[in-house]
Design brief:
α2 runs antiparallel to α3. By secondary structure, this protein is an alpha+beta fold. A hairpin with a 3-residue loop joins β4 and β5. It has two domains: 37 residues, no CATH class; 124 residues, no CATH class. The strands form two sheets. The chain has a four-stranded antiparallel beta sheet with strand order 1-5-4-6, sandwiched between helices. Helix content is 40%, strand content 16%.
Length: 173
């Protein structure tokens, strides 16, 4: 699961931008300018103090929702959460991951929505803000395809967020 800080990935990003329900789009500086002009708040950047709180909230929600937390990575602009769960709600029988209409996938979505809400509340409390959006509306629920993909995420992809992007990474066994 990946969540981005509010306005951290603007439409003028060199790699393009993601439009909800439409996928990746080409960079669009004019649209970025228009959205920046009409935005309610400035872009969010997670400072180290807030990064630690976000990681703590992720742990608390994973325990609350009885899902297994494998890792969390928090940078100035986004949070990655690697978790797994077994759900009797699975109706699709998929071995790798549940399909979009499966009830178990809805469990994963509800966990992430809860995490986002609690992250926003915790960040607002620390920064003494009210009514501020901390995370963007969207989310990425890309499943881990296999053990090799999992190992890559744990050993390579997430650790780079600490070394290259100045974030924090916590891996749980």
């Amino acid at each position: 699961m990946t969540g981005h800080a509010y306005r951290s990935w603007a439409e003028d990003h060199p790699k393009g931008y993601v439009q909800r329900d439409e996928g990746l789009k080409e960079s669009n500086p004019r649209l970025a300018q228009w959205r920046a002009k009409h935005a309610r708040h400035e872009p969010v950047r997670f400072e180290p103090q807030v990064q630690k709180i976000i990681a703590q909230v992720v742990v608390e929600i994973a325990e609350e929702r009885c899902v297994r937390l494998h890792a969390v990575s928090v940078t100035r602009t986004h949070v990655h959460v690697l978790l797994s769960f077994r759900s009797p709600a699975c109706t699709c029988g998929a071995l790798a991951h549940c399909r979009k209409n499966c009830a178990a996938r809805k469990v994963a979505e509800s966990v992430f929505i809860r995490m986002k809400r609690k992250i926003g509340q915790a960040a607002a409390k620390v920064k003494s803000t009210v009514g501020r959006r901390w995370l963007s509306r969207g989310r990425d629920l890309t499943p881990v395809r296999n053990r090799a993909h999992f190992d890559y995420l744990i050993r390579t992809y997430l650790p780079k967020h600490a070394t290259v992007e100045g974030g924090i990474v916590r891996v749980y066994q």
